[in-house]
Structures are given as C-alpha cells and as structure tokens.
Amino acid sequence: MANVIVVGGGASGMIAAGRAAEKGHTVHLYEKNDRLGKKIYITGKGRCNITNDSDIETHLNNIPSNPYFMYSAFYTLDSEATKQFFEKLGLQTKTERGNRVFPVSDKAGDVVRALQKYLKQNNVFVHINTNVKQIWIENNTVKGIVVSNGKKVHSDNVIVCTGGLSYSGTGSTGDGYTMAKSAGHTVTKLYPSLVPLKTNEKWCQEIMGLSLKNCAITVKNEKGKTIYQDFGEMLFTHFGISGPIILSASRHIVKELNKQIYSIEIDLKPALDNKTLDNRILRDFQKYSNKDIRNALDDLLPQKLIPVIISLSEIEPTKKVHNITKQERKNIIQQIKHLTVHITGTTGFEEAVITCGGICVDEIDPSTMQSKIIKGLYFAGEVLDIDAYTGGFNLQIAFSTGYTAAEGIKEE
Question: Which helix (H) or strand (E) holds 341?
C-alpha cells in the first residue's frame, strides 16, 4: 500500500484522507489551524449546505467555469452517494427548498464531527497546527512535503486541499496556489465570487436589513445587455446588496468589474405585469384616496421601501392619493418593476463564499485529480479552477474531487 499526505483539513481534505485510509493506505493529514473543518463551521450560515439533491446534469449546469472537468468526479461520488456517506456516519440529512441538503440538526459542527469520525475509523494520522511550506519534488516526482520548521516528511503521494482565498480567517490564504506554481502549474487569475456587492445608491443604506423573499433581478452591462437573471431572496445592506440571488449574480460580473459598470434591476412584483400592477395600485388608491401617498402603499410594499419608491418616482410624500397623476402612477410602476442599483465593487475575499479561478484544470487528470506535470501530486477542492453557484454545489465539488483523488492513488 502507498503512503499518502493530505495538505489541508477542510471538506475535500478530510474526505480524501478518510477514503485513502479506508482503501488501506497510510495517511497523514496536515492542517495549519488548531482544528479541522474551520470553514465548514461557517458555511450555510452555520448550518452547512452539504450538497444539492439533484442529478449530475443539474450540478454541471450550476458550474459556470470548467464544468466538463467534473464529469468523472461526479460519477465517482454524486450527491446521492454523498448523502449516503454522511448517513452511514450517523449524520441524518434533510432536503429543503431548492433541493438544498442540510443536517437535520442544522449544525455545521455535526458535519465536521462526522468527517472526523471517518478519519478516526480509518486510522488517519492528524497533525494540527502544522503548516506545510512546500511540496518536496525531485525529477518531476513527489517525494513528500516540507513543513514550516524546514523538516522534510517523505511520502510518495501528496493531495493538496488547501482551499482558495475566501474567508482567510479560516486559513484559506492561497498556500495551494503557491505550491502549484512552484511545481510548474498555471494558476489563473483569482477573483472573489459569490460575494456581496457594493452599490452607488445611498438609499440601500437607509433600508439596510430589509430582506426580499420573491423578487426577480436582471443584471445588465453598461451597454444595456442582459448578463444574468434570477429569482429568489436578496438583502439590502449598509454597503449595498447581498443574499442568495445577488451572490450568484456576482459570479457573472467579478471578472469585468474594474472595466465595466454593471447595473441590477430589481423587480419587486415579478408575478404581476404592468397592467395587473396598475389595476392593483388603482384599487389601493381608491381605498386610501384621502391619505398621503406615503401612507397608501403599505398593502403593496414593505414599509422600509415606501419612502425610497416615492422619492425615486419624484412624488412629494405628503401629496394626497386622489391628486396623484397618471404619469406619477406610471413612475411608481416603473420603480416597482425596475428598481435599479449600480454596482461599484464587491466586499472582497473576506466575505466571498468561494474563489473564482485557481489551478488550471487542463493540467490535471479529471479521472484521478493527479497532476499531469508531477507524478504523485494531486489537487482537490477550491484550489482548482472550478466554482459553482450557491445551493450546496461548491461543497459537492469539494467532496467529489477529494474522494476522486483518494480513488486515484494506486497501490504501490
């Protein structure tokens, strides 16, 4: 049997180490933090969206970069197999809206504990508080690793699972990219992705904390071309906008944000066309005909939004409803259907769920995750140039690539 070193104790690292050991290899897992799975604890707002309960095609459709690379890995470990894997370890799961899979307990810590149990069951040697400085390579072949005190540790196989640059407080500081480059690999340009967006509009700050449940968004470039559309939940913040549909939208603009100005149009009432909405407003106006306009939209809009819509519609808030003109009503409809914000930037890697970019997948064998350049060197998880939308798709990439890397290691 082979000896294996896994660098990084996150989702991909733990499943890779456990699976390699389960196959009978001697496995050492190195983690620079004082505990394993630090990033898992904060995923899904502390609930951990393990995977998405959908077919392989759906998973591939939710990967905007290099989806073809994932075919083999998903057939090695798909979402159904991932659910079964965790249930065998005693972690009960449940499926929520959008096919998102969570632990029944709603505790991300239970996912970490299940993976730790897997490591223990298979006798993986775990080294925490140990920083791997570089991969030890001779004649285009892995010889092991060098830890931060300069000590060399021999191994014929090294799986790099160091994560990306997102949430650096969890230890994702780009170490794997440095290791890959020094091994001769190409690392594509890195961007924060699934990240909250900053806006030019100051009124976002005035309504911070307001969450919209069923709204539609259209992302447009400066030429007015539609780049992306989505429907679901979003949130206004002190710097701009966030929430699931905004995070997914960010993936389509991060690469060009410094070259282009993007706008996002928010449709507050996607179920109503202009005519239906106009009839609805007319009914409300009849009901509240003697009130100020600022007190006549409560049935239609969240309270926090009313002053914003009235102001953008250029109507005096104290104007009586029976004095509102047809044009002013048109203005209100325009704002409700096309509430527009202009994007000035992102909140950066510190708040990005995932890193867009990474180790060029053309240099990796998709059926084993082994480097095509260095024998015995494998990569898995966020360090690769693959990223997906929200909904459990990114963790599935981590589990599938980690598991596939372990499967790819042959007996000596």
Answer: strand 339-346
